Structures are given as structure tokens and as C-alpha cells.
């Protein structure tokens, strides 16, 4: 059964929905009220956006499912607004991402000089470096050997506006709340990233955070940009067929962070209800 309930502020309602924590990660101390509205209002003026994603799971030898669906949703929304996007990842996640349909992706740093300076960079469930220069999984495992330094784009963004989306504390953008990660997340001192972002969306999964950003963007532009539940499930199926794995089961299956598709589908429906109610659809 859905846990949706009306609230007066639609942006706050979106934040409450994406902050659900069925995986019991303890993300509540990391939440930044107002982040969805701020990020969405920023993104509405975007001219060219980098979408940075891909989290390699060392124990499975493949990219995880989380982040890919959110990236697809955000690219779909920005395309509807005629905003050009480029998906950026590394060679470790490349096989799954290209097989899943991200055939226009750019590898960092290999081909990156070919990309013009973006107005915005959005990182969806992409690991950021620890203060010691290593990259860490949520288990505290050193995954530096299988992680490209894509987070350099946020450490030196130039004039670009950066938006980080994550669910654990080790993702790009979480440097904005680093001390909170250290104090409140299991293995916080081991995993906390130093990589900040101008705007940070913390959610139960990376995909949910990206959906929340799309919902917020929908409110700003006055029309729904959210994918349908069927469309989002189709993306997930495509990623799984390409070899993306659930990081808990380590199997290529239609689950995100150990959660069944039905959990995510219910949440996406609730986001649709917020957007439709506000827009009078």
C-alpha cells in the first residue's frame, strides 16, 4: 500500500517521498530541506548538462542497477526541454552502460577533452573520493583500482553548477554533508567523500533522488516530465539484460539496492500524484 499523503508544499512533499528509507541506511541526518526546489530551479536554466553515473560493484564485476534508471529519467526530461546532455562514466562501467543503450556516453578522462564546458553537472549514484584519495564502497572496501577519477569534474567545476544525488555518504556531492556522514552513517569515517556539490539531493536510492529532481523540474516548468512506471521498468529491464546487478544479491535482476521493483514503482506513482495535483492534471 502507498504511504502517500497530501502536504501543503509540493517540493517538500517530493523531498519526503524520496527520503523514504526502506533499506534502513539512516539517511535522515543527511537531508537538506529545500534541495529539490533549489536544484530544479537551477537546472531549468541549463544549457548543456553532463550526467555522471555508473557505480562498479567489485564483488560482482559489473555496474550496479541504481543510478542508471535515474540517469535515463533525467536525460528523458532534459531532452523534452531541448537541453543537450552527455552521459559520462568510466571504462569499468562502460560495457553495461553501452549495452543498455547509453551508446553516446563519454569516458572520463579518455575522450573528455572533446566535450565542451557544461552549464551543469549532475552526478547520480557515482562514488566520490575519500580524503585519503581512495574510493570506498559502502562496506569500506577500497575500490580505487576499478574506479575512474570522474569526480574531478566536481572538485574543479569551473563555472558549472553541480548537483549530487546519492543515498549513502560515499557519492559525489556528499562532501557537502561530510561531517554528518562521519557522525551518523555506519562506517562513516571510512567512506565519507570529500567531493561537494552546489546542490545535494539525498534519497533512499540514487534513482529515487533523480526522479525527485525530475518531479521538481516538472513543477518549475509547469508540465510533467516524469517517466511512466512502465517506461521506468522498461529501462530497468534493459539495464539488467545488459548485465547490471543488484549490489546486495550481486545478481543481474530487477532490484535496486536490494529493493523490489514494486517498492520503486509505488514511490514513482506517488511522485506523479504530487506533480499532477499541483499542475491540475
Task: Give your account of this protein's structure.
This protein has one domain (10-279): TON_0340 (inorganic pyrophosphatase (n-terminal core)). Helix 1 (10-18) packs antiparallel against helix 10 (261-279) and helix 3 (68-80) packs parallel to helix 8 (206-221). The strands form 3 sheets. Strands 5-4-1-6-7-8 form a 6-stranded parallel β-sheet, covered by helices on one side. Strands 2-3 form a two-stranded antiparallel ribbon. Strands 9-10 form a two-stranded antiparallel ribbon. The chain is globular. Mean pLDDT is 95; it is low at 1-6. It is built from 10 helices and 10 strands. The longest helix is centred in the C-terminal third of the chain and has 19 residues, at 261-279. It has 281 residues and is α/β, with parallel strands linked by helices. The two termini are 23 Å apart.
Mean pLDDT score, rounded? Answer: 95
CATH topology: inorganic pyrophosphatase (n-terminal core)
Strand tally: 10
Strand order of the largest sheet: 5-4-1-6-7-8
Domain tally: 1
Highest-level CATH class = Alpha Beta
Distance between the termini: 23 Å
How are the SSEs placed, and which strands pair?
Blueprint: H1 10-18, H2 35-43, E1 49-53, E2 56-57, E3 62-63, H3 68-80, E4 85-89, H4 94-99, E5 106-107, E6 120-124, H5 152-155, E7 161-166, H6 178-184, H7 188-191, E8 199-202, H8 206-221, H9 229-241, E9 255-256, E10 259-260, H10 261-279
Parallel strand pairs: 1-4, 1-6, 4-5, 6-7, 7-8
Antiparallel strand pairs: 2-3, 9-10
